[in-house]
Design a protein that fits this description.
The protein has 151 residues and is of the alpha+beta class. It is built from five helices and seven strands; from the N terminus they run ββββββαβαααα. The chain folds into two domains: 89 residues, Elongation Factor Tu (Ef-tu), domain 3 (Beta Barrel); 52 residues. The longest helix is centred in the last third of the chain and has 15 residues.
Length: 151
């Protein structure tokens, strides 16, 4: 897991009328993390209260944020404007990082022979497209597209 924050002081923000986002934390240093809603999961602690698999919400051209629900606020006895101590980790992403890992996926799907029958330039384009995806979920979508096409 990648550490995003280690015992960092943040302010619990309160914006009335924002639904689940009425109480939230802005996570410094996360502006350049790539991913869309539901794809970026974080775990850690807020004032010692452990949370798992919260969505890190994308914000256009700004740091990401997490919603802090009533259960968490009650457990830590904090409200909007209060300071909290946050430790946070980006949940591990099993994103493929090499051609060999990708070929293993095609082999597991019983499609390696069909993939290798494609012209070399088409193989290279598929490999580049899949490995350049920002996360595991998008890679899986592209792999499934190729498997469907080959079957």
């Amino acid at each position: 897991m990648k550490t995003l924050l280690k015992s960092e002081k943040l302010i619990l923000r309160h914006q009335p009328g924002k639904g689940a986002w009425t109480y939230h934390l802005v996570i410094p240093g996360t502006k350049d993390i790539q991913g869309s809603w539901g794809e970026m999961k974080v775990s850690g602690t807020i004032d010692g209260y452990e949370f798992k698999d919260l969505n890190l919400a994308p914000v256009t051209n700004a740091d990401k944020m997490i919603s802090v629900n009533g259960t968490i606020r009650k457990a830590i006895n904090k409200n909007g404007g209060d300071e909290v101590i946050v430790t946070m980790y980006m949940n591990s992403d099993n994103k493929l990082s090499s051609k060999d890992q990708l070929l293993d996926c095609f082999n597991d799907a019983g499609m390696l022979k069909d993939f290798k029958a494609l012209p070399n330039d088409e193989q290279k384009e598929i490999i580049t497209t899949i490995l350049s995806q920002p996360n595991e979920s998008r890679q899986e979508q592209k792999i499934m597209d190729v498997v469907k096409r080959l079957s």
